[in-house]
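ARCHIVE CARD
Drawer: 12
Card no.: 0347
Subject: one protein chain, sequence and derived structure
Cross-reference: see card 0346
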Amino acid sequence: MGTEGDQPAGDGGADGYGRGPSGDGPSATGLDAGPGVTGLDAGVGRDVRVESGDAGSDPGPGSLERNVAFAAASAVLFALGLLFTESFGEVAVDVDLKPFFIPYLLIVAARAAIPTMAVGLGAALGEGVLDVFEGYELDDPIGFIGYVVGFSAFGWYLHDVAEDPTRPRSLAVGATLGAFVQAVFEGVAYLTVEETATAADAAVSTLGNTVTHGLVLGAIPLVVLLPRVRAPLRRLAD
């Protein structure tokens, strides 16, 4: 039985990653994927599209069209989800139910950086539109920034840190991290704007929203739904 050093240049390693000419690192594509295959097809969140003859019709991972599509989908779907989940009211002091799994699913189909930020911006815009109709509050701009930073943190962990972005553990850790970052912004905003708020109230808000957004309406539905919506996500990623 040969060792890894015995493998011919370009052969895939045991971890599924393509090997470069030296046989000791990922190749330029990152995976042994065929033409037109994305990372989502191959079981990971990264887009590893190989150039093919019809690449001209692909808007590309960083194109304006693709980013606008992600932002629009995030804004509409997140707003619709909020209309349902927020109808249940707050479960504790400044702790509510928000369907973070919706932007999370879109981020799984996107790369980190610009497309992921587009999803976060779309979610913030969807929430902002609803806030205008429900009554704009002074802490809303802080929450707006929190959405963009929080969802970007989820994308950063999933695509740049996690070894396998499709593992339930990676999804759960990323979902909790993103919700915690956003909840910190919410807690600070609540403590700053609400005159009667205390540090304990801000802590309850931060921890409570981390649980409701990151686990209850974050990691759990994300892990359950991802295998079932992989096909439409793949089309959006393309």
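Annotation on reverse: The mean pLDDT is 78. The first helix runs from residue 39 to 42.
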